[in-house]
Amino acid sequence: MKRKSLLGRLTPPQFLVIGFALIIVLGGVLLSLPISSANGQGLRFADALFTATSATCVTGLVVVDTGTYFSVFGQVVIMALIQVGGLGFMTMSTLIALVLGKRISLRERLILQEALNQGSMEGIVRLIRKVLVYSLVIELTAAALFAIRWSFDFSPGRAIYLGVFHAVSMFNNAGFDLFGQFRSLVPYADDVLVNAVAMALIVLGGIGFIVMAEVMEYRNRRKLSLHTKVVLSMTAFLIVFGAIVIFLFEYTNPRTLGALDGSGKVLAAFFQAITPRTAGANTVDIAGLRQATQFFIIMLMFIGASPGSTGGGIKTTTFTTLIGAMVAMMRGKEDIVLFHYRLAKDRIYKAITLTLFAIILVIVVAMVLSTTEDHPFLMILFEVTSAFGTVGLSMGLTPDLTLVGKCIIMLTMFAGRLGPITLAYALQPKPDKELYRHPEGKIIIG
Fold first, then answer.
1. Where does the chain cross the membrane (predicted)?
2. Residues of the chain with pLDDT under 70
3. Which is nearest to 160 in space by CA: 137, 180, 143?
4. Using an 8 Å Cβ cutoff, are 203 and 191 in contact?
5. What pLDDT shows up at residue 128?
6. Helix (H, G, I), strand (E, B) or coil at 16
């Protein structure tokens, strides 16, 4: 009997972990080459690896300014890493296979199922086709709109280039920008078109491809799944509630909303409410926000985007499940009911497990960084949560990180992109089958 190869013995979670790691290393090597830097001297490998990790994990934390330090070659490498990291390297591999007319094997379908966080393999290749088509159409449309707007500020060629780069970056929730001086979209804080297109890209990239496909087909099906209803409703709630809180907290702050007119304040409040959903771009100075606002953004970053999307965090569905469990317990109900559907117990256990994993990870990493980095704890907690949620927002700590700090943040971004549970499944040995159940016991809670 023919023995399986090493790759054949890997489980889908292990395959994803190794695949992402290899792409990051390759990206780090390319970004460390002299051709990747504008001055032709090459970036230190540790910094190049950090940038590659941030791009592949669609985060946006940067140790050097992307717009001024990297050459066009380096920026294109970063854009390619963002695209592969956002859509997933298995999705891109499937695209190549479909173009070449190759058959997608059962093993490849299992890996795609894990990569897209699907419950079954049914229709997985059809979903991949939709993901690729929707992504291409959305990015090209946004790139054209950006290019038209920026053609008033730059040459036509430069405007098109900026449009393509930022469309890819925003849709994949990466947060990288090319405007220099770590400014992100601050120069366009009150620009309606730039804000509208950027916010639309972030939301579309963050709701997940399953939701996007269902919404696109709603005219024919006239039905939305429970998952889609939960994602859309919680996303809308977090955006509106977040905008109101930020607007109230920052209205008189001269370093942020206080410097803008009425419409600019509203735009900036909504943008800063949307971008913590793992996007990483900003239109006001994050370091200039009041501490209450910064901590509120930490909470939004921790929640993150939705399953099967380009974003990170514990996800909107997990947060909704936790809120549902709390409400059910307070009302003395046994079941969590959402939109007239009862949630299965395993979904609740998974939500609790994922949240506890995430809380422990963020707390431990923040504690370790507080011993290696000489900065305020809130700034460190903000950085760690941003890395875990693959957001990319920063209060200015990233360029000042020590080598140890960079390594820790890289691992946090990696864990945040793949998900703590996927990472745990990849590292754990094959579980033994349980032959019996222990007797039930009771403990006092609360």
1. 15-33, 45-64, 76-100, 131-152, 192-218, 230-249, 295-328, 348-369, 375-395, 407-427
2. 1-13, 88-125, 420-436, 445-446
3. 143
4. no
5. 73
6. helix
User: Structure tokens of 236?
Assistant: 């809308």
DSSP, res 305? S
C-alpha to C-alpha distance for 32 and 244, rounded to whole angstroms: 43
Burial of 122 (0-12, 13-18, 19+ CB in 10 A): exposed
**Per-residue burial over 72-108, b = 16 or more CB atoms within 10 Å of its CB, e = otherwise:** ebbbbbbbbbbbbbbbbbbbbbbbebeeeeeeeeeeb
Q: At what angle are helices 403-418 and 45-56 packed, to 10 degrees?
A: 20
- Please tell me the distance from the alpha carbon of residue 371 to that of residue 320, in angstroms, as a whole number: 34
Q: Domain segments of the chain: what residues?
A: 12-423
pLDDT at 387: 94
DSSP letter at 7 equals G
Give pLDDT, residue 359. Answer: 94
Q: Which residue carries 């199922």 as its tokens?
A: 113
SS (H, E, C) 72-131: HHHHHHHHHHHHHHHHCHHHHHHHHHHHCCCCCCHHHHHHHHHHCCCCCCCCHHHHHHHH
Supply the pTM of this predicted model.
0.88
Backbone angles phi, psi at 338, to 5 degrees: -125, 125
Instruction: Provide the token pair at 142.
Output: 């946004």
Query: How far is it, in rounded angstroms, from Cα 176 to Cα 168?
Result: 9
| Pair 306, 320: CB distance under 8 Å | no
Residues 205 and 86 sit within 8 Å (Cβ to Cβ): yes
